[in-house]
Design goal:
With 386 residues, this protein is an alpha/beta fold. It folds into 2 domains: 35-263, Aspartate Aminotransferase, domain 2; 266-383, Aspartate Aminotransferase, domain 1, CATH 3.90.1150.10. Helix content is 34%, strand content 15%. It has helices spanning 41-58, 72-84, 97-109, 206-214, 248-264, 267-287, 313-316, 320-336, 363-383, and strands spanning 65-70, 90-94, 115-119, 136-140, 142-143, 148-149, 164-167, 184-188, 199-204, 228-229, 232-233, 291-293, 305-310, 353-356. The strands form 4 sheets. Strands 1-9-8-7-4-2-3 form a 7-stranded mixed β-sheet, sandwiched between helices. Strands 12-13-14 form a 3-stranded antiparallel β-sheet, with helices on one face. Strands 5-6 form a two-stranded antiparallel sheet. A hairpin with a 2-residue loop joins β10 (228-229) and β11 (232-233). The longest helix has 21 residues, at 267-287. The radius of gyration is 21 Å and the shape is globular.
Length: 386
């Protein structure tokens, strides 16, 4: 098979850090407050603006608190787990790598005595009807390494007694989030909006704030995890102050991404762009016999971390190690041609491909990628006599 004539204008399809917004250049950071304190009046104003624009774009309720925290999404989730868990029993759900990390944290590291895990294999969801909303719930909204998302939040009780802690890092800005069902929501800048890494966001409902102010965790909290002072919420964190020093270059980049999002029409436009990207791959998968989605059902198919598996008989006859080696080779062929970067499956996931379809990706670039996927597959299949 001949190499395709055209390549994606932007071959960056990494699931994190994710592609920058269309038209981005370092000039977007020209107004960054480099060399200035983040605690200066202009510095605090930039951070406060990032919080308020986040609220505007995501439609976060006015009585929810939004804070910028260290450690990316991981830091934000850990902050919530260490600060909030232990007041009641906990149910933890996992169907991919990061959800499994939260299972380990809750059961092994924090060693919550009354904790249950609900785990499903890659491609599937656990039994959502088995959880108990009288208990605290910990879950991801979108499985970044499995391409499986929650179809809705109908399984979460409106009058729940427990808190819901949702890792939404590859869902926020690409999928509608039902705020009334979420008490703690976390994400990072480097996902759907293509921001720079190392900074996380934590969003707290009034119920989460009440827990913070009425519950003393039975463990010492590192400074980076402390959301309260003298038994009350540390309001400064949610007004533009930060626990540690943020990068003002990264803050400026996030503001630029939020401005771009607002220029498109806000959340609805971002969601539509991501769904259009998924539609490009759905149409291709439907007519391509050697590939399928890792997600078992259409309703749970992610529009951001789109995970594919090779289903050709000759490929499935290989052992896992050989399958992994071939998908790595396929992605390496595309990288060498400058057609796609960083699309091999996550290291702990089944062998396959993972193609980012968040809002900063152009559908035209995904369309241009498809002939290259076919070329790379045909090259490898030919080597195996298929």
């Amino acid at each position: 098979m001949q190499k395709p004539e055209f390549k994606p204008a932007n071959p960056c399809f990494s699931s994190g850090p994710c592609p920058k917004r269309p038209g981005w250049s370092p000039a977007a950071l020209a107004q960054a407050l480099v060399g200035r304190s983040h605690r200066s009046k202009p510095g605090k104003a930039r951070l406060a603006a990032a919080i308020e624009r986040t609220r505007e774009v995501l439609g976060v309720p006015d009585d929810y608190r939004i804070g910028i925290v260290p450690g990316s999404d991981t830091g934000a989730v850990e902050m919530a787990l260490w600060s909030l868990l232990g007041a009641r029993g906990v149910d933890v759900l996992a169907w991919e790598s990061f959800g499994s990390e939260w299972v380990s944290d809750v059961l092994d590291v924090l060693a919550i005595e009354d904790a249950r895990k609900f785990v499903a294999p890659y491609g599937e969801l656990p039994d959502l009807g088995a959880v108990d909303c009288a208990r605290d719930l910990v879950f991801v909204w979108n499985g970044t390494t499995s391409g499986v998302k929650l179809p809705d939040a109908d399984w979460i009780d409106d009058d729940r007694a427990g808190l819901t802690i949702c890792d939404a890092t590859s869902a926020a800005f690409a999928m509608p989030l039902p705020w009334s069902k979420l008490d703690v929501t976390t994400f990072s800048w480097q996902k759907v909006l293509g921001g720079e890494g190392a900074h996380g966001v934590i969003i707290l409902s009034p119920r989460a704030v009440e827990r913070l102010e009425s519950f003393v965790p039975p463990r010492p909290l590192p400074k980076l995890f402390r959301l309260t002072k003298k038994g009350k919420l540390d309001a400064a964190i949610f007004e533009g102050a930060t626990i540690n020093t943020p990068s003002m270059l990264c803050v400026e980049d996030y503001l630029d991404a939020l401005t771009w999002a607002q220029s498109l029409g806000g959340l609805d436009a971002l969601v539509m762009r991501s769904r259009q990207n998924l539609a490009v791959l759905e149409a291709w998968v439907a007519k391509t016999p050697w590939v399928d989605f890792l997600a078992a059902t259409e309703a749970t198919r992610s529009s951001t971390s789109i995970c594919l598996k090779i289903v050709a008989d000759w490929f499935l006859a290989l052992d896992d190690a050989d399958q992994a080696a071939l998908t790595k080779k396929l992605s390496s062929l595309l990288e060498a041609e400058g057609a796609a970067y960083d699309i091999n499956a996550y290291r702990n996931a089944p062998p396959g491909l993972r193609i980012w379809g968040g809002a900063t990706v152009e559908a035209s670039d995904l369309a241009a990628l498809l002939p290259w996927l076919e070329w790379a597959y045909a090259s490898i299949a030919a080597e195996h006599g298929a």
